[in-house]
Write a structure and sequence with these properties.
With 103 residues, the chain is of the alpha+beta class. It contains three helices and five strands; from the N terminus they run E-H-H-E-E-E-E-H.
């Protein structure tokens, strides 16, 4: 059974911020939209696909995009996948940890 993908407000804000950083519409599609679409399609069918995030109970992470530079942080529920964050992984690990503590 395919799971429904649900984006939290925070994850939607992350997505918009990344699109704004990329700027160029065609580049944004190549860099993020198409890889994200493929990963989410897999995630719908295989919710345990992502690796568990160390120090959390339920959060999982999948990497996507060129060089696997974007991390999708989610929680798999019975019938849906809650996307909590979409983060550019090329930043200070401490900032990533702080962001994940908010989830």
């Amino acid at each position: 059974m395919a799971h429904e993908i649900v984006w939290t407000a925070g994850a939607e804000a992350d997505l918009l911020r990344i699109y704004e950083q990329v700027g160029d519409h065609d580049l944004a599609i190549k860099v993020l939209r198409e890889p994200l679409k493929r990963v989410l399609s897999l995630l719908r069918e295989y919710p345990a696909l992502g690796s568990k995030v160390h120090g959390t109970q339920r959060i999982r992470r999948l990497l996507t995009g060129p060089g696997k530079r974007f991390g999708i942080f989610y929680v798999a529920e019975v019938r849906r996948i809650m996307i909590h964050a979409l983060i550019d992984m090329r930043q200070d690990p401490e900032l990533l940890r702080l962001r994940l503590n908010d989830l």
